[in-house]
């Protein structure tokens, strides 16, 4: 079995980034990245996510967006007439050509969330796309910096443990602000993983300080669990409630812990978070370029 599908959610209101998000989706905010010519460039966050997962062999992507939103779809629709014009004028950037090659090799779908009814509701909108296949679920407003190995490890652990769901966690000092898991460590088919027996959203009395990172790998049974999940007191369907439904239905749910010495979870959901992410990605690219230059004697 291979994991070749990804669901990327981009349907949030972006209320903490108003008034900016009246004009641009937060998932389209630019972050620093290494260019095809090994220089510094800017790419929308959602493009970086797609490219990272593409590099791991994923080829089918479903974006869950707000009703009436076309910004992400328009961005990934590269018109050949425009590309030919740029090439004829000698203005076709290498990075755009690389994106064109990637887009010609993937299948993209866009589904719409009519009303902002929560993360879980957004995910279950992609049920038809998922079908009976396993998939990566990635929130569109966050990224693991240089996280390709983390994504690969998450997929590998999901396959080795034959899990229903593989979660990613990180240790936090303020778990009341996050989805939090409880459970115990186990060794499953040679992999040391955390067996999740409980997960709760923003608990007043957290069972642990292991907070969810918004990157997951699931099999299709999460969609059945989400269909059975009703809205909570906030009127939203939480993914964490769907995961609990999966566990109570004898689903095997495990978690890995993010090594934040090597990797960093970046979120652009607030002005402070975005500016921090922009600065960290700039420093990361500039640092890798400086190291490459030193190594090559430049």
Automatic annotation (TrEMBL):
- Specify the enzyme's EC class, one word: transferase
- Please give one Gene Ontology molecular function term for this protein: UTP:glucose-1-phosphate uridylyltransferase activity
List the catalysed reactions.
Answer: alpha-D-glucose 1-phosphate + UTP + H(+) = UDP-alpha-D-glucose + diphosphate
Entry keywords, A to Z: Nucleotidyltransferase, Transferase
Q: Which SUPFAM superfamilies match?
A: Nucleotide-diphospho-sugar transferases
Q: Where is the Nucleotidyl transferase domain?
A: 5-278
Q: Name one GO biological process term.
A: UDP-alpha-D-glucose metabolic process
The protein's Enzyme Commission number: 2.7.7.9
- Name the family the entry cites: Belongs to the UDPGP type 2 family.
Q: Specify the protein name.
A: UTP--glucose-1-phosphate uridylyltransferase
> Where does this protein come from, organism-wise?
Candidatus Marsarchaeota G2 archaeon ECH_B_2
